C-alpha cells in the first residue's frame, strides 16, 4: 500500500501527487478495422471479382491476403466475435439482434465478462471511435431511452456515428451520433449517400484525434452499410457496368475462378464446385429475365466500386497524415454473399423476406429504378452463388460459402512478403487477439471488477512475419440457425440442414429436421473448396468430428439448437413492455418502432390540430418510407393516409378539407373479416378503404426506423408529398392507441422477418 499523502494547511506543508493516465506502448500501432457487409469470397478485385476495387486491391498489394479466414455466416454474430474475441454463442449472439431469444447463447446481450476490444484498448491508452453499422444492440433498446449499455459508447468506444440496425437506406439512413438519434446532413435530392458520409466522419474523427494528441494511438472501427441490401448507388457509377454481366452468373463465376487460380488466391488444382440444381442455368432463362438479372448485378458491382472509391479517400488521408505505415489496417467481410433477394431478385428486399417477390414483368417496368431512390433492391441468388466462387452456398450456412470471406491486412514494414496470400486457417475471434498482440496488450483478467471469460481467439502475428508460420487454430465449430459445421486438423464436417427461412426449403436440397441431418466430410488440406464429400470413406472421422461438435456446442452455449417456428415462443423481451397507448408531440426525434403501441390488432391515431383561416397541410405522423410504412397527413387540407405495404400501397383520402378551427382528426386501422382503414374528423367518418393483409413492416425494426410527428424526412411514404412536408397549422399532439395491446403478427411472419434482419 502506498504511504498516505501528506496534506497540510499550507501548500508548503503538502505533498503533491498526480493521477496517472493509461499509456499505450510507444510502438503500439493505430488500428483501422473495416468491416464490409455481405461481401462474398470472390467479390473484391484482389480476390478475383473482375469489377473495380482498386483501392482495396492496392492495400492488398502492400499487405497480405488471407484465403482461409472464417466468420460466423451472419452479421451480428461475426461482429460480436470480432470485438470480443469469443465465439458468438459464448457471448449470447447466436442469432441476429432481431431474433434474440431467452437462452444463454441467444439473448443478444454481450456480457460484461467479455469486454470489447474497444474497451480494452481505451483502458490501455488508445482513443476509440466507431463509424457505421453497429447491430450489437437489441432492437428493443434502440430508443432515446436506451438502455445505452450496449450502444457503442457503452461498450468502450468514445465516439460513434452510424446506424444501430441490421441495414438502412443508403439515401436516407436512420443515423445516431454518440447516444443521440440525428438527421442526415443532406437529403437524397441533395445527393446524400451513406458511404460517403461514413468515410467523411471517419476522416474527421481521426483528424481531430491526431491534431489533438498525435502521440496517442487510435482504434477506428468502420463498418459500411455496403454491400448489404438495399444495393443503392448513384446512377453514374452504375452506367460504367452496363452490359458487363449479360453473359450471366455461370460465366462470371468461371472467370472469377480463373482469376483466383492465376493470381494464387486459391491453390492450383482447386475444384470449382458445380452449380446446384436450385440455381438455374443462365442459358435457360428468357431474354427479359437475363436483362433484369444482369441489371441487378450491374448495380451491385457499382455499389462495390463506389464503396472502394470512398475507402480510398480514407487510405489517402492516412498517407497525407503520415500515419499509414504505423496503422494496422484490416479489411474483411462479416459473411458470405447474400441470397436474400430470392431466385429472381427483388425491388423491395423486406418484401422478399416474406416471399412477396414481384413478378418479372412488374420488375422490368421499374428496371431503371433499381439502385436509385425508388427501389430497395437485392439481386437474385444466382449472383450470391457466383460471388462466393469457388465455394458452396452462401450467407447463413456453415458451408464455406457462408463462413469464408476475404481478409486483407496492411501494416507497413511489419509484414513479410507484401502482396502474398497467407493460407493459415483463421477465424473472426482471432482478430481481437491479433490487435492486442500488435499493441503489446495482454487480455485483462478483470474489467470493472468482473472476471473475464476465456478468450477463444489466438494471434495471427506469427503469420504476419512468416509465411510458413504454423497454423494456430486446429479446431473451430460453426452454427447458425441450425446449419452446423466443425473444422479440426485439416478436416471439416458440415450438415445438410436447410433452415426454414426465405422459402429455401421449397428449392434447396437437404434435410429439414435435425434428426435426419447428414454430415458431409471434406479434407480441406487437399480440397480448398469443400468439393469432394468423403464421408462414406471415413465414417470414423465423421463420428469423431460430430462428437467434437457436440462438445464445442456444450462449451459455447449453442444449445438448444435454433428451430423455426418453435423458437418464436421464446423471444427475449425488452426493458419494458410496449405501452397500450402513448401521446407524442412535434419537435422531438423519431420514436423507435419497437417502443410504439402494438398496431397488429388495430389502432387509432388521433391528432389534435388547429387549422388557420387559410387552411393547413402537412404530415401529422409518419413511420417508414415507400418501401414499408405509413403516413397520415393533410393534402390540400384533406385528411389522407397511405399504407406502403410490402406488396403494394393502399391510399385513403377524404373529399373535403378540414375547416378552420380546432379539430380531432383520426386514422383508424380496423382488422377483422373485412379489415379497413378509416379516416374521421371530430368523430365522424369521412373516408375508408379496404386494408387487406397484415399491417406489419419488418424493415422498420431491422433499420431502426422511428415515428416522426408533424413532419417526415428522407424517402416519403407516398408520392403525394416531399419531406419534410411539415404541418402548417398547429399540431398539439397525436395519440396512438392500440386496438389490442400486445398483439403481434402471426408467429411465422414475425420470425421470418426477424431472421432476415442480418
Automatic annotation (TrEMBL):
<feature type="region of interest" description="Disordered">
    <location>
        <begin position="736"/>
        <end position="758"/>
    </location>
</feature>
<dbReference type="InterPro" id="IPR017850">
    <property type="entry name" value="Alkaline_phosphatase_core_sf"/>
</dbReference>
<feature type="domain" description="Sulfatase N-terminal">
    <location>
        <begin position="29"/>
        <end position="441"/>
    </location>
</feature>
<keyword id="KW-0106">Calcium</keyword>
<dbReference type="InterPro" id="IPR000917">
    <property type="entry name" value="Sulfatase_N"/>
</dbReference>
<protein>
    <submittedName>
        <fullName>Sulfatase-like hydrolase/transferase</fullName>
    </submittedName>
</protein>
<keyword id="KW-0378">Hydrolase</keyword>
<dbReference type="InterPro" id="IPR024607">
    <property type="entry name" value="Sulfatase_CS"/>
</dbReference>
<comment type="similarity">
    <text>Belongs to the sulfatase family.</text>
</comment>
<dbReference type="Pfam" id="PF00884">
    <property type="entry name" value="Sulfatase"/>
</dbReference>
<keyword id="KW-0479">Metal-binding</keyword>
<dbReference type="GO" id="GO:0046872">
    <property type="term" value="F:metal ion binding"/>
</dbReference>
<keyword id="KW-0808">Transferase</keyword>
<dbReference type="InterPro" id="IPR050738">
    <property type="entry name" value="Sulfatase"/>
</dbReference>
<dbReference type="GO" id="GO:0016787">
    <property type="term" value="F:hydrolase activity"/>
</dbReference>
<dbReference type="InterPro" id="IPR013320">
    <property type="entry name" value="ConA-like_dom_sf"/>
</dbReference>
<dbReference type="GO" id="GO:0016740">
    <property type="term" value="F:transferase activity"/>
</dbReference>
Amino acid at each position: 500500500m502506498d504511504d498516505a499523502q501528506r496534506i497540510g494547511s499550507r501548500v508548503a506543508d503538502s505533498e503533491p501527487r498526480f493521477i496517472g493516465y493509461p499509456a499505450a506502448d510507444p510502438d503500439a500501432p493505430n488500428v483501422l478495422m473495416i468491416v464490409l457487409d455481405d461481401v462474398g469470397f470472390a467479390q473484391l478485385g484482389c480476390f478475383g471479382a473482375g469489377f473495380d476495387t482498386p483501392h482495396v486491391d492496392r492495400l492488398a498489394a502492400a499487405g497480405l491476403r488471407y484465403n482461409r479466414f472464417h466468420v460466423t455466416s451472419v452479421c451480428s454474430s461475426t461482429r460480436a466475435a470480432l470485438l470480443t474475441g469469443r465465439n458468438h454463442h459464448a457471448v449470447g449472439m447466436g442469432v441476429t439482434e432481431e431474433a434474440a431469444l431467452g437462452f444463454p447463447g441467444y439473448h443478444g446481450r454481450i456480457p460484461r465478462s467479455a469486454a470489447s476490444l474497444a474497451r480494452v484498448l481505451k483502458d490501455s491508452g488508445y482513443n476509440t471511435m466507431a463509424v457505421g453499422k453497429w447491430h450489437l444492440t437489441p432492437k428493443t433498446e434502440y430508443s432515446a431511452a436506451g438502455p445505452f449499455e450496449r450502444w457503442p459508447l457503452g461498450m468502450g468506444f468514445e465516439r460513434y456515428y452510424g446506424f444501430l440496425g441490421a441495414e438502412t437506406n443508403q439515401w436516407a439512413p436512420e443515423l445516431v451520433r454518440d447516444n443521440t438519434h440525428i438527421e442526415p446532413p443532406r437529403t437524397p435530392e441533395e445527393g446524400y449517400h451513406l458511404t460517403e458520409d461514413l468515410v467523411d466522419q471517419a476522416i474527421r474523427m481521426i483528424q481531430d484525434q491526431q491534431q489533438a494528441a498525435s502521440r496517442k494511438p487510435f482504434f477506428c472501427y468502420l463498418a459500411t452499410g455496403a454491400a448489404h441490401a438495399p444495393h443503392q448507388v448513384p446512377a453514374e457509377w452504375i452506367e460504367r457496368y452496363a452490359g458487363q454481366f449479360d453473359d450471366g452468373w455461370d460465366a462470371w463465376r468461371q472467370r472469377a475462378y480463373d482469376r483466383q487460380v492465376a493470381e494464387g488466391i486459391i491453390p492450383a488444382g482447386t475444384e470449382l464446385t458445380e452449380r446446384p440444381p436450385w440455381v438455374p442455368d443462365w442459358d435457360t432463362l428468357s431474354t427479359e429475365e437475363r436483362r433484369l438479372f444482369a441489371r441487378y448485378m450491374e448495380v451491385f458491382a457499382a455499389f462495390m466500386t463506389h464503396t472502394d472509391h470512398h475507402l480510398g479517400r480514407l487510405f489517402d488521408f492516412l498517407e497525407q497524415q503520415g500515419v499509414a505505415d504505423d496503422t494496422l489496417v484490416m479489411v474483411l467481410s462479416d459473411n458470405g454473399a447474400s441470397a436474400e433477394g430470392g431466385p429472381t431478385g427483388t425491388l423491395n428486399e423486406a418484401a422478399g423476406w416474406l416471399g412477396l417477390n414481384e413478378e418479372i414483368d412488374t420488375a422490368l417496368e421499374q428496371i431503371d429504378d433499381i439502385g436509385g431512390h425508388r427501389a430497395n433492391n437485392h439481386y437474385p441468388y444466382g449472383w450470391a452463388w457466383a460471388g462466393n466462387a469457388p465455394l458452396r452456398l452462401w450467407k447463413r450456412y456453415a458451408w464455406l460459402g457462408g463462413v469464408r470471406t476475404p481478409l486483407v491486412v496492411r501494416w507497413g514494414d511489419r509484414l513479410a512478403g507484401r502482396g502474398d496470400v497467407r493460407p493459415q486457417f483463421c477465424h473472426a475471434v482471432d482478430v481481437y487477439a491479433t490487435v492486442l498482440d500488435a499493441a503489446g496488450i495482454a487480455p485483462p483478467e478483470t474489467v470493472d471488477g468482473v472476471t473475464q471469460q476465456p478468450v477463444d481467439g489466438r494471434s495471427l502475428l506469427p503469420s504476419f512475419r512468416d509465411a510458413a508460420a504454423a497454423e494456430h487454430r486446429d479446431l473451430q465449430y460453426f452454427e447458425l440457425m441450425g446449419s452446423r459445421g466443425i473444422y479440426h486438423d485439416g478436416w471439416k464436417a458440415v450438415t445438410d440442414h436447410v433452415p426454414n427461412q426465405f422459402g429455401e426449403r421449397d428449392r434447396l436440397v437437404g434435410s429439414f429436421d435435425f434428426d435426419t441431418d447428414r454430415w458431409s466430410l471434406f479434407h480441406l488440406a487437399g480440397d480448398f473448396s469443400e468439393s469432394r464429400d468423403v464421408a462414406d470413406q471415413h465414417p470414423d472421422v465423421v463420428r469423431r468430428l460430430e462428437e467434437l461438435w457436440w462438445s464445442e456446442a456444450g462449451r459455447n452455449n449453442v444449445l438448444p439448437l435454433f428451430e423455426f417456428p418453435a423458437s418464436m415462443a421464446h423471444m427475449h423481451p425488452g426493458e419494458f413492455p410496449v405501452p397500450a397507448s402513448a401521446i407524442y408531440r412535434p419537435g422531438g426525434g423519431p420514436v423507435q418502432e419497437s417502443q410504439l403501441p402494438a398496431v397488429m390488432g388495430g389502432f387509432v391515431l388521433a391528432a389534435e390540430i388547429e387549422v388557420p383561416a387559410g387552411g393547413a397541410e402537412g404530415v401529422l405522423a409518419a413511420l417508414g418510407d415507400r418501401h414499408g410504412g405509413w403516413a397520415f397527413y393533410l393534402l390540400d387540407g384533406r385528411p389522407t393516409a397511405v399504407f406502403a405495404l410490402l406488396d403494394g400501397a393502399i391510399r385513403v383520402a377524404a373529399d373535403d378539407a378540414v375547416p378552420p378551427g380546432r379539430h380531432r382528426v383520426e386514422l383508424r386501422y380496423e382488422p377483422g373479416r373485412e379489415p379497413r382503414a378509416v379516416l374521421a374528423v371530430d368523430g365522424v367518418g369521412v373516408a375508408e378503404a379496404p386494408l387487406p393483409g397484415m399491417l406489419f413492416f419488418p424493415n422498420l425494426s431491422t433499420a431502426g426506423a422511428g415515428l416522426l410527428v408533424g413532419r417526415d424526412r428522407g424517402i416519403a411514404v407516398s408520392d403525394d408529398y416531399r419531406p419534410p412536408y411539415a404541418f402548417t397549422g398547429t399540431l398539439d399532439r397525436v395519440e396512438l392507441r392500440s386496438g389490442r395491446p400486445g398483439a403481434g403478427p402471426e408467429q411465422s411472419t414475425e420470425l421470418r422477418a426477424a431472421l432476415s434482419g442480418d
